[in-house]
Amino acid sequence: MSANTLLIIKPDAVERNLIGQIIERLERARLKITGLKMVRLTYDEARKFYAVHEGRPFLDELCRFMSSGPIVPMIIESDSDTVLKVRALIGATDPAKAAPGTVRHDLAISLTKNSVHASDGQETARSEIAFFFS
Ligand code: CMP
């Protein structure tokens, strides 16, 4: 059985030409990219995507950042536990706390400009994939 998740390459990583490096890390880990596009969200679309964080103090800055430039959402697939595998590969949300060798440790700039987003569970993955790939 296969399992899917959503990964987004955020504007800071697109801006610094890191799309290829991030994709290479995913493919080396034998994760399959089965959907991919480049889009630019409006501020309101970013608010919709991050609706789960409504009321959090960082939401406005996050949504301004996520709508500041192009992003690359992609569907990632593997045999099992894709959500967990991708989250392990990208590391902790805060790059300062991410383990060496993870995407965020190696490439991210700050808590907001943390280079990538990945779904945090199977249910979230389903709705986040549907958000970008209807
Ligand atoms: P992401 O995985 O995209 O999910 C929500 C984002 O909010 C997170 O990565 C961070 O970029 C951003 N963020 C900013 N401040 C915080 C915070 N204090 N706690 C959690 N996420 C934060």
Overall description:
It is a single chain. The chain is an alpha+beta fold. The protein has a single domain (3-132), classed as Alpha-Beta Plaits, CATH 3.30.70. It is 41% helix and 16% strand. The protein has a four-stranded antiparallel beta sheet with strand order 2-3-1-4. Helix 3 packs across helix 4 (59-66). The model has no long low-confidence stretch (mean pLDDT 97).
So what's the overall shape?
globular
Strand content: 15-25%
CATH fold assignment? Alpha-Beta Plaits
C-alpha Rg (nearest Å): 14 Å
Q: Indicate the CATH architecture.
A: 2-Layer Sandwich
CATH homologous superfamily identity: Nucleoside diphosphate kinase-like domain
Structural class: alpha+beta
Element-level helix/strand string: EHHEHHEHHEH
CATH class (first level) name? Alpha Beta
Number of domains: 1
Helix content: 40-55%
Low-confidence stretches: none
Q: How would you state the average pLDDT, rounded?
A: 97
Strand order in space, largest sheet: 2-3-1-4
Number of helices: 7
Structure ligands: adenosine-3',5'-cyclic-monophosphate
Largest sheet: 4 strands, antiparallel
How would you sum up this structure in a few lines?
Helix content is 41%, strand content 16%. With 134 residues, the chain is of the alpha+beta class. The chain starts with a strand and ends with a helix.
